[in-house]
Amino acid sequence: MPDTDLPPLTQPSDDALAAALAHYEEHGFARLGRMVPDATLEALRARLDAIMLGEVRWPGLFYQHDGATGRYEDAPIGLGWQGPSLAYRKIEKLELDPLFRAFLDDRAFERVVRARISGDVVIYRAIAMNKAASGGSDLPWHQDGGTFWGLDRDPDLQVWTALDDAPEDGGCLEIVPGTHRGGLATRLGGVIPDDLVRAEDAEARKVLVPARAGEVVLIHNYVWHRSGRTLTGRARRAISVCYMSAATRCLRKKRAPRTFFPVFRR
After folding, report:
1. Other C-beta atoms within 10 Å of 118: how many?
2. Domain spans in the chain, listed from the N-terminal domain onward
3. Closest Cα to residue 209, out of 29, 36, 11, 71?
4. Looking at domain 14-263, does it have CATH number 2.60.120.620?
5. Which tens digit of pLDDT belongs to each residue from 235-265?
6. Which end of the chain lies in a sparser environment, N or C, as judged by fewer CB atoms within 10 Å?
């Protein structure tokens, strides 16, 4: 099978998509249901494992391994490839791989994204988030935006796909609904300070978003979200793709401004 020969994703109905987008506007997230067929899941899981084991390598892939403690703060920074391992915490720039590139460019995703973004579309990042069978690491409350992202405008749409089942005790998404409407908690973005978490009563307001393999969830960049370790003894792999308008510009000055991968060019 050629690298890009994947079965098409299942399209949500017009009514289901409209309802999901309305929920997304109000709550900052929405389920789109199970869109990814088993054959695609098997191919993507196998490819991701091959990337982590070094059997498939692409110049420019970004790797971050998990730390030994499972604490987010202890994950090593800036070390990149650490040798073959199924315990990488995340891998970015998946658009460099033909199989993942075909996946994130699927027409079903195009239909969803174009309901939110007009004109030409690019991706800010395509990232695999992995919680290894040994547990992986936690990810604290955070937002995906702010000056740390280095853009002239923050994107607001991420498409998250479960490659494995993500039950409540298996590293599922946790979200504080409606927090996207308050904008950035800090100008920098990223991890939300503990005092703001307490002030927002995040622990009491959170909702768990368990997912089956193949389910797709829309996530607003500003909604507070996190995930814990998996306690099931099984890996929890997921793909998150941040789509944005091609008019977005990178503001960094220490190095050449980033260019962003275009999608949906038929």
Report:
1. 9
2. 14-263
3. 29
4. yes
5. 999 999 999 999 999 998 888 899 999 999 9
6. C
